[in-house]
Amino acid sequence: MGPIDEAMTKYKKAIKAVLALPVACTVCYGCGQDASDADGQEDRKPLNIIYIMSDDHSYQTISAYGSRLIETPNIDRLADSGIVFTNSFVANSISGPSRACLLTGKHSHKNGFTDNTRTFDGSQQTFPKLLRQAGYETAVIGKWHLTSDPTGFDYWNILVGQGEYYDPVFIDNGERKVIHGYATDITTDIALDWLKNKRDPEKPFCLLLHHKAPHRTWMPDTADLGAFDDTFIPLPENFYDDYEGRPAAAAQEMEIGRDMNLIYDLKMADKEGTVPTGGWLGDYGRELYARLSPEQKAAWDAYYDPIIERFKADSLTGDALTEWKYRRYMRDYLSVIQSLDRNIGRVLDYLMESGLWGNTLVIYTSDQGFYMGEHGWFDKRFMYEESFRTPLLARYPGGFHGEVDAFVQNIDHAPTFLEMAGAPVPDDIQGGSYLSFLRTGKVERGKHWRKSLYYHFYEYPGEHSVRRHYGVRTDRWKLIHFYGDDIDCWELYDLKKDPHEMSNIYGSRSYRRIQKKLHKELRRLQALYDDPVEQELALGNQ
User: Among residues 423, 305, 283, 417, which one has the least CA distance to residue 360?
Assistant: First the structure.
């Protein structure tokens, strides 16, 4: 029996044990049933919250979303007992701004953290602060990436900056510590230690568990090296996109063939130094290797050295080199996901074993989506589907089980957690609570849910040279405006006929009516979210 089979057997036994528990429970913090319905006692107490967020995890590599590349049995446990949100999106597809949207429930222009060059204003209102006022104990563990120190948390233990995969530096409530090991394991270890030993068991809690993985440079745990070497990885349908009619897509610097570094990204640092570094990135890649301990280097060399020698001997060029780079990238990326999934299983196992499973909301998501070779790309940033979308799975005790196709966005987590805790939701929060979806799978009777999404990306000039842009997405249509000193263009896509967003139909006579409606909806959203500067740009460029 392999490790995945063992995990699933253990999981099924635990599920049977949970299902065997009595329905009514008035001892713990809520078990998904209103105690007043069961025995006439007082209403249930607030549920705990565990919000697990990875970095750059694509929905394309989660088996609950239909991935054929990888099995993610532990993430799928949330789908098996809860909800898969099939239309989950971000407001700004880049790490720091996405985290600021989560904390504040506001779009980037309102929380002030528009791009990764900023420093998050920790004095502003955040949902962890409001939860503390409502009696919750709060903690954030893992990747933070907001420059300023966390505020509003009873406990914080965060990676420095992006963090490193091996022997990372953590800041434990202000004290820096180098911890030997692999970042995904360590982050989980710290989280489990807090759950078991450091929190107040008399209080409901909210734990933000933020993993570095699977962020670039996709360095697998030594235990997972080679895990996907025998996996067939097909090229995406639009891998060789020529970007016709899409000048912003043509101007980016995130193509696998052209921009992916052999050493920094693909670990081809030979001992002889004959593989060109490709600039400072390659030099930094060699520094990352130098961080490894002797034991880690031994495992690393045993796996990568034969690949490096084969790569040098083959002397690939052109499309053959591009496709080799793509598959090398994917195998490392998937190996990092395998460790991530395994560690999520450790947390879920603890919740079941400790009795917390019955009174804890568990969320799994990513700070944004990621390109798995679509358009020939890696990275994120664009409003195109692969980076605009993000996975979102949730298990609410006693709640809905199945798929929810309503539009949800990362500004919605804050009001959801506050409503669930019975805390007031401030009027200036721009997201909406999706609590009714967790409970029943439907919008609350008498209320309306959004039919369109607003997006705004700001970081230019910057890494990967993705131009500033904003736009609106409905169930079928997407309108995007790329703007700046060197670009001013609109793009329109029919997502039903063109799901890969290859044909820009903006300006076509056949779509004038829908184009006009989308401009109107874009103006409405910009007014709703108070984004006036870009509203004026939109009006002036129709």
Answer: 417
Q: Is the pTM of this model over 0.90?
A: yes
Whole-angstrom distance, CA of residue 33 vs CA of residue 44:
8
Q: How far is CA 322 from the centre of its chain?
A: 26
According to DSSP, residue 482 is labeled E
Task: Give the chain's largest Cα–Cα span.
Answer: 76
Q: DSSP character for 116?
A: T
Helix (H, G, I), strand (E, B) or coil at 269: coil
Query: What stretch of H or E contains 49?
Result: strand 48-54
SS3 content of the chain, % helix, strand, coil (to 5): 40, 15, 45
Cβ atoms < 10 Å from Cβ of 331: 22
Q: How far is CA 29 from CA 67, 341, 515, in A?
A: 36, 27, 50
CA pair distance 424, 474, nearest whole angstrom: 30
* Token couple for 148: 């300023």
Q: 278's torsion region: left (phi>0), alpha (psi -120 to 50) or beta? A: left
| 468 DSSP 8-state letter | P
The reply to whether omega before 214 is within 30° of 0 (cis) is: yes
| Amino acid making up residue 53 | M
Report the pLDDT averaged over residues 367-376. Answer: 98
Q: What is the pLDDT of residues 451-486, one digit of tens each?
A: 999 999 999 999 999 999 999 999 999 999 999 999
Q: Which residue has the tokens 């090296």?
A: 225
Residue 484 neighbours by CB distance under 10 Å: 12
Complete DSSP assignment for 23-64: S---SSS--SS-HHHHHS-PPPPPPEEEEEEESS--GGG-GG
> Using H for helix, E for strand and C for coil, what is the string for 270-312?
CCCCCCCCCCHHHHHHHHHHHCCCHHHHHHHHHHHHHHHHHHH
Determine how β-strand 155-159 pairs with β-strand 137-142: parallel
Q: Dihedral of the CA atoms 96, 100, 102, 104 (nearest 10)? A: 180
Distance of CA 163 to the CA centre of its chain: 16
CA 432 to chain centre: 19
CB 397 within 8 A of CB 31: yes
